[in-house]
Amino acid sequence: MMRLKSMLEDKQMKAAMLNAPFSLDAKSAGLKSLGRAIDFIGPYQASGAFVQRSWAKANAATLERYIAAYIQGMRWTLARENRAEGAKLLTERLKLKPEVASRTMEMLAEPKFGFAPDARFDVQGFRNVLALRAEIEGDWGGTPPAAERYIDLGYYERALKHLGH
């Protein structure tokens, strides 16, 4: 939201990565899309939740319940039968236009570009995020660290088992 606001108000701001629904608002405001990140760099882990390993270890059961609830929420969001209700929630809570909210719900369910089923973590997408940070921000002296240094999917896997998978 802040990126779009900056692009609309500050003519010096020329480009930004925008997720739905803000990408739709940008288009309706006359801004041009340069394309989707995934088309340029391949997989991209656009969102996620992170905790320190020490906290995860001390709060494993809570973390696994949180992840299981998140997966259930993602399943609800992606289910075709919930799109109208999801659009209604977006309209009410984010004050989106109904047509933007409906299109957002459709975009979120697109297999290649939307949310990952069961909130699956994309390791290659995360590698690309690290590579971009290294290149653009200069983090890690310009050389991204190994993605595996930051990843422990054990909590996610146990959360899936709690859900019967």
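(ticket continues) Second input and output from the same batch:
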Amino acid sequence: MRRALIVVATIATVGTAAATEPVSVEDCVRLALARSPAVRGAGFATDVARARYGAARAAYLPVLSAEAEYGRSAGYDIAVTNGGSTTTVVKAETTLLDGGTRRAQVAAAGARVQASGETERDERAGVAFAVREAYFEALAAADEVAVREQALDTLANDVHLLERQERSGLVPANAVLRARITVETTRTARRAASADLAARRATLGLLSGIDSAVGLVDPGEPRPLSQADDAIEKVPAVAAARLTLEAARRERESAERERWGKLTLSADAGALGVEPATTFRDDRGAEVLASLHIPLFDGVASANVAGARAEVAAAEAALERARESARLEMVQIVQDAARAKADLDAARGALPLSQQNLELMRARHAGGGDVRLLELLDALTEQVNARLEVSHALLAYRLAAAKAAKVLGEPTP
């Protein structure tokens, strides 16, 4: 029992240590993809399409069947009933010519398989984007919490200093009050950031299954976006629409070629007769039959052809709509990324200036210069805002890159 307790305690300690190890955004993406019901559902849909493709290819194989029966007839004219029936027959049937119907059906089923694969890729990209969005927003919220915490520490020291100066009569009474108001405002902002961080971590835990207290890893700045000329055709929605159009065209071809007729060949062998004893001894044989079927008029087939042609027209319109939507979305994403990158560069350039200004104002205020408390608090607010601007611009840039990866169905931004 003692050894068992030691083992359990060791496992618990190792599990806790492993649970607290930082996880990267791509680790969370892999975990989310492995447990996502949307991804599993898309995979099952692809499996269904593959099974139907196999069924379409199986139409080239002959059909082999067996038939057996035994019956006695009494009280009827024997010329009509033959007195009964005993049958044991094995039959093979195959289609020799069908005008290309099966070939078109196989091509249509293959296009459906590829379209399902593109839909599955789109689902995976959507799950990956949801994880990256929660992860990056959690990083930004954690950064804001840290900035607010540091500002509170600085303000706490200022309040203590002002209280001593107020007791000495060096500053007016409202100086401490003004500083305390700034402290409460900063605390409110910190609470909001902490709540946002908890919400983003909860979302990330729901998607990836990780612990809400696990550490996050800063992935750094994403690589610049570049829109290739053929990028639109790689978008999963566009590729799926293009393959759906191909499938619709093949199905239309199949419906049109069904009116050409087909040539079939069948062969059977077995025993036919009345009495089982004589049937299997004397009446065993085989036959071969070739048949040609050409429809002269079939209203259902004509309606199917008209419907298949309408489906082709609808698929063509859907493809154009998917391309237009992808172009508009990519243009917007590229613009958002360029704006976020410009804001990020500007914020990073302004951050050292705001820090220098704060240090200068603090030194002048502490040295008895002409800097008032309000000016010092404004300088601190500007420095905090400059740090948050860097975090917000970096978040916008990361989200733009993640959106581009989602639209293009890429595994990483």
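Agent notes: The CA atoms of residues 341 and 397 lie 6 Å apart. The first strand starts at residue 63 and ends at 72. Closing as not reproducible unless the customer responds.
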